[in-house]
Amino acid sequence: SELIRGFLLSGMPCPSSCPPGLLALMAPGLALMATFSLPSQAGDRRALPVEKPPGVKGRTLILLDVNTKSPVRIISENFLSLQLDPSIIHDGWLDFLRWLPSLTLDGQSWRPPSLDKALASLRFVRNTNPVWCMSGSVVPGGLAISLFSFPFAVDIVRSDIALDKQKGCKIAQHPDIMLELQREKAAQMHLVLLKEQFSNTYSNLTLTARSLDKLYNFADCSGLHLIFALNALRRNPNNSWNSSNALSLLKYSASKKYNISWELGNEPNNYRTLMGRSVNGSQLGKDYTQLRGLLQLIRTYSRAHLYGPNIGRPRKNVVAFLEGFMKVAGGTVDAVTWQHYYIDGRVAKVTDFLKTRLLDTLSDQIRKVQKVVNTYTPGKKIWLEGVGMTSAGGMNNLSDSYAAGFLWLNTLGLLASQGIDVVVRHSFLDHGHNHLVDQNFNPLPDYWLSLLYKRLIGPKVLAIHVAGLQRKPRPGRVIRDKLRIYAHCTSYHNHNYVRGSITLYIINLHRSRKKIKLAGTLRDKIVHQYLLQPYGKDGLHSKSVQLNGQPLAMVDDGTLPELKPRPLRAGRTLVIPPLTMSFYVVKNVNALACRYR
Questions:
Q1: CA distance 14 to 171
Q2: Is residue 500 part of a domain?
Q3: Is residue 368 a part of any domain in this protein?
Q4: How many domains is the chain partitioned into structurally?
Q5: Which domain holds residue 391?
Q6: Distance of CA 447 to CAs 177, 437, 538, 575, 591, Å?
Q7: Which tens digits make up the pLDDT trace of 429-458?
Q8: Assigned domain for 488 exists
Q9: pTM of the full predicted structure?
Q10: CA atoms of 388 and 392, how far apart (whole Å)
Q11: Helices (H) and strands (E) in the chain — how many of each?
Q12: d(CA 465, CA 514)
């Protein structure tokens, strides 16, 4: 089975060295997706008054059916991934990874020690010039790091082995005072890292052999797969990649029999801006070919996976960079990777997260990348290897709020429907405000959203059919989609639902409620509702959420709350409140597309 980064894995007990909440999101599987939209007036903050069609009372009724015969896409079992910023090495969090609270999909155990099995993978990336240090000697070179879990069945085996055989997979008992001191240190480091971001000047990051051992043991005990992105900025006079430091790291890792996959560089199209050095696409392709040759010389890594080039947003010059890379190394990598951040976190406003034009920017990026990849290597898998709602670390009470979830859930739907195999969320825990848990390891809104997604969504994407009375926009207005509906086969690993069930997830950006009547194969079926709304007086700025009217919070330091659905009687119209996100499991549909894996 294929290694994937940053996915939430489901339903497995977390070994004793996982970080908080990570495992709860690791459930494998992504499902069907489709979109439907009601027209609305772009640029208007309030719905414009319109006349109701003759004979129609109340609000528009939408008829919804799903093609249950065959999926339109089948995505990786480990679709949803996670990134963890390598600043955790810089500011000292690495020593706490072994005991971070765990979040498991079966609702058990949230407390120190481990990475939750609900979250499948972690990715560490930083645009700096890190240093790999071994045996006391410091050699410029370094790397970025990513963690990924195996698909579900394999992960169970790995977890059992870790628990039974690895005596080192025990909880490190740190006094509470150590954690408080670490938080103070991290708060100071946060200011340093932000200053580096804004000034585009970065300090070196040193990774010692001891740090690598800690990191690998953490990953291995958690049932995760580790991926290193080696530093591509070490250059020879002719601008070719200097691989001497990387070779040293490869040999060390091989001597320890570490099972690792590899990358080279991060956002190489920005090297001149960030580091004053420039590498074009064809040169990076040659560097990847060189790295593949090194891997084949080392028996442990002769069949290791290699991913790249991890470019930034595919604007014109970046597309040219990708074309140059694919011409040279398209057949060398196992998946083509790129990154996408929606808006500058320094200037974002809550209303930005409600703009359909912003939500739709990702579709254009996907098409650009797919066009290049399919030109040179048709059928090659594509990963969105770094995605965040905002760049520059995000903004407090905004990119970590309920409002950011609209972008996040729509991102998952778009990527699945358009065939992107893996998405890596930035990030689980770091110095900014794009993360899924805070520094007290309390889940933020996007964590709960991701957890529900992993529990309910399977790997098959289904097409939907929508009919209904739609309001006409004013002349000259652009119609954009404010009601977005995606459909998937329900996760096979969720034993509360029999195979053949279907999960819908719906984003309502309208400021009025919408009514949906299930039709065709979905008619007269019992439905389970999971409605997420902000909790508290802060509204869309809230860092807390409620599920079906009940606030979501840890029961205690060791227990996740039960995520209870609200059963709806067969044939009942779905009423979608304004500015909300929701999941609906349509039970016992016996969908042909969803009966078998």
A1: 12
A2: yes
A3: yes
A4: 1
A5: 63-129+170-230+334-594
A6: 27, 7, 18, 24, 29
A7: 666 677 788 877 788 999 999 999 999 999
A8: yes
A9: 0.80
A10: 10
A11: 12, 25
A12: 17
